[in-house]
Write a structure and sequence with these properties.
It comes from Snodgrassella alvi. InterPro entries: Amino_oxidase, FAD/NAD-bd_sf, Zeta_carotene_desat/Oxidored. This is FAD-dependent oxidoreductase. There is one protein chain. This protein is of the alpha/beta class. Among the domains are: about 190 residues, FAD/NAD(P)-binding domain (3-Layer(bba) Sandwich), CATH 3.50.50.60; about 120 residues, Orthogonal Bundle (Guanine Nucleotide Dissociation Inhibitor, domain 1). The chain has 16 helices and 23 strands. Helix 2 packs parallel to helix 9, helix 2 packs across helix 16 and helix 6 crosses helix 8. It starts with about 25 loop residues before the first strand and ends with a helix.
Amino acid sequence: MKISRRRFLSHVLGASMVGLTGYEAWRYFRPGQPPVSIAFPGKATGHAIRDARINVPAEIPRFSVNTVIVGSGAAALAAAWQLSRQGMQDYILLDGAERNGNNRGEQQFGVNYPTGAHYLPLPSPESEHIRELLSDLQLCQHGVYDERALLQVPNERLFYQQQWQNDLLPHTDADSKRFFQFVHRLSSQRGTDGKRLFTIPLDLASMDSQWRRLEKITFADWLEQQNYRSPTFLWYLDYCCRDDYGQGIRQISAWAGLHYFCARGNQQNEHGTIMTWPDGLNELSQRIRTFCRLHPVTGLADISLPRTQPYSINAFAVSIEEHNQGVRLLICTERQQYYWLEAQHAVCAMPLYIAAHVVKDIQQYGFKPDIHMPQYAPWIVANFLLRGFPAERKGSKLAWDNILYQGKGLGYVVATHQQIRQGPPAYTSFTAYTALNHDTPANVRRWMLSASTDEIYQCAAAELEQIYGVKLRRRMLQARLSLRGHAMAVPQPGYLSNQGLQSLRTYTGRLQFAHSDLSGYSIFEEACYWGKRAAVQILAQH
């Protein structure tokens, strides 16, 4: 059975948000209990931009640069990687709210752990851009992947009927057999245009209308039409969709549901081999920065001339305006310093719900926010820092990915799992992912802002406490919770025919758009594809 692909983002909460990465508050449940931190990455400045509450000084210095990349998530860093590998050095990357976006990682007690995206499946047949990237980053040489990055076993387990089993599918039945036989055939099937029906990146998939019409209905409706009735199997499919898309089978399109299982093709990678690191995709982001020789500065005055290497700055974009000669950007640094940047080119690697407030007259690009804006799923990513490990049930070994059957969350991963060969470390982190799809996204976001610390903790820790009971808190040193109200775009029915997204994908001016939102769902490979494409377009204009 393929490992569940929790490819949480690669979604860039880019440079249009606050340059504050610290946690907003330290709170406690009760005296003597471990401290709990609550973070809302980028919320303060994101809301300020949305509500036009930023006060801009009258006198602002101006600087010129060839290219500005707005954002520092997967799409932004992919654009930087492509510019650097083609020899361009005169560019500036704006780090924004979170350095490395949703690929960011942290360290506490000597433990590295992810605060968002935490693994990368091996590339699909069409993902040549990922193979190029991994080669440049010294993670794949001549088709051989760095074994230190390949997931160690035991890789996954499911808590089902009060015991652990080494398969995420509760049990095999007639429905599951029929479904997997179907998707196995579908994985290699091509449309009338000769392209595979389902691909990563999505931009290379077949446009065959016979199959594309499946995007008009929900996955749940299609499953019912096909007479899939098994409760355990339907739970498994719903889990996979929540895990990858932030919403379940009743919210996503049938096309997206099948894409999850078919897009990687019938490869030798039958067991879902993936690459992962203790701090997740933060490792990839840092490797890209090293490859690009990105030099961090606190202000534009620190940039020397002539520019012989690219720079990164902890700043966000307040406004972006394209004109005939280039792109004008107003940026604000972490120190509240404002600058006008006059660029020949710019890459807008921000999520669209922020870009809509930053890019001047975004409607001119064919994107109308009130009509074309994707829906975004809210998430909680919770890291529970532990001294040692709570005792496991007899006969079961802790795996990298651990899921509770019918749990409201998505289970938890063990940050130190890749150190398994070295013996158990003194400290670890259990990283729990919760896709909040029990209510509408808008209602969930309101709950996030009004809920108490205890309510948020109980939501994030419910599955862990059900499995470990008091043993968890006895080991816990800290709980660090990141609440992301707009974590990822959801591939709802109609997302493939979204004319606004299509317009942004095909635009080729001085300003390039690059974000996984353009694909309508959030994974590293899609973000990287659009980042590389934006850089290629810029290089072609020189």
